[in-house]
Amino acid sequence: MEPKYEEMARQMRADGVSEEMIARFVAEEMEEDEFRRSKGVTEIEALRERKKIPEHIRKPLLANAFCYSCGTTEFAPGYTLRMRHGRVLVEGCCAKCGAEVARLCD
Questions:
Q1: What is the DSSP letter of 53?
Q2: d(Cα 103, Cα 56) in Å, to the nearest integer?
């Protein structure tokens, strides 16, 4: 874990926060940081809609995209979000082979 997240966890422990909550918070922060490092441009409305999707549904959506080159796979870090026809479109690269992949979240 990066020093930034270790420091956050240390401060939360000092404040008496449970390990479960610390793990959840750090995981969310790591996901947000990875998202911010993305290569493309994300639409703010798509980001807002994505935030409305419960976390237990959000993660499987990113791990379930179809890659024409190697089959079912997950998105590599650096994906972007856009709104298409009232739904969130995730665009990025295959984590396995690097081919372009997309998923429309409904």
A1: S
A2: 17
The pLDDT score that the predictor gives to residue 104 is: 87
> pTM here?
0.59
d(CA 86, CA 78) in angstroms, rounded, equals: 22
Beta carbons within 8 Å of 72's beta carbon, 6+ residues apart? 64, 65, 66
Contact in structure between 65 and 94 (CB atoms under 8 Å): yes
Give me the half-sphere count of Cα atoms (radius 13 Å) on the Cβ side of residue 62. 19
pLDDT band at 40 (very low <50, low <70, confident <90, very high): low
Rounded distance between C-alpha atoms, residue 106 and residue 93, angstroms: 20
Torsion angles phi and psi, residue 66, rounded to 5:
-100, 125
pLDDT digits (tens, 9 = 90+) for 6-30: 999 999 999 999 999 999 888 888 8
What distance in Å separates the CA atoms of residue 85 and residue 46, rounded to the nearest whole number? 11
